[in-house]
Amino acid sequence: MKNTPKTTGKNGRDNNGKFSKGNPGRPAGTPNKSTKQIKELLAEFVGTNVEDIQTEYNKLDSEKKLYFLEKVLKYVLPSQTKSFLEFETEPQIKVIRPKRPDNK
Question: How much is the pTM?
Fold first, then answer.
């Protein structure tokens, strides 16, 4: 006889802490509690320190400002997908070769 863990009834998990058969867990896209808490704490931190962050940003040189924006924007803007160009006709490419000095 197979030794199967019994469901404890707590969150649909068995005695080993695994989801019991037929229980898919939380719905896709639902953040776990710790992720949600960390995001809330970071938002609060940034909100209360925005002036200090701006002051420090203003002290950076151009290269470091771009680096900062690159790192921060991915958390603010939605991620982009690749896009492809479609042409109704084949693009015409004309190759232009410079003349050689010896006219060959």
Answer: 0.46
Q: Report DSSP state, residue 5.
A: P
Contact 34, 25 (CB under 8 A): no
Nearest CA to 71 among 53, 84, 83?
53
Q: Are 35 and 42 in contact (CB under 8 A)?
A: no
Higher-confidence residue of 84 and 3: namely 84
Q: Is 57 within 8 Å of 68 (Cβ atoms)?
A: yes
Asked whether the predicted pLDDT for residue 1 surpasses 50, the reply is no
The pair of three-digit structure tokens given for residue 94, joined into one six-digit string: 């004309």
Cα separation of 5 and 14, whole Å?
A: 6
